[in-house]
Specification:
This protein is of the alpha/beta class and about 130 residues long. It is built from 5 helices and 5 strands.
Length: about 130
């Protein structure tokens, strides 16, 4: 499912069948809204969408939250200080972040706090390290 919106199997019409914005960021607004409601001041939220996260954190009145990109080589969720909220999206799984995602999903110190489902399908998961 990596980069489905540019998949060669779509015979040159991948953007038509699998539009990136409609497929990959479902549930992100809801996930960031949840974090904005529950995160203590100065907490960190990690994700793969710096522009979108910046927009929603400002819209939800939480410019105090630190924003990190999971696939940034300088970021390591395991060593990042708590409180840390990590938003995992199926559509934002890359070769560059799959080890980090696996580590977050593997358990302590991370726990699944909330899952955002749309149409019965998991769109985003929020893990927290307290």
């Amino acid at each position: 499912h990596y980069a489905l919106y540019t998949n060669a199997l779509a015979a040159g019409r991948a953007g038509y069948f699998f539009p990136h914005d409609e497929l990959y960021d479902d549930g992100l607004r809801e996930a960031l809204g949840h974090v904005a409601r529950v995160a203590p001041a100065g907490a960190t939220v990690a994700h793969e969408t710096p522009g979108v996260a910046r927009h929603y954190l400002a819209r939800f009145g939480r410019p105090d939250l630190r924003s990190e990109v999971i696939s940034d080589p300088a970021f390591d969720a395991a060593s990042a200080p708590a409180p840390l909220y990590v938003i995992l999206q199926r559509g934002r799984t890359y070769f560059e972040n799959r080890d980090e995602l696996r580590a977050v999903r593997s358990g302590p110190p991370f726990t699944l706090e909330r899952e955002i489902s749309l149409g019965g399908v998991s769109a985003a998961q929020i893990y927290v390290k307290k």
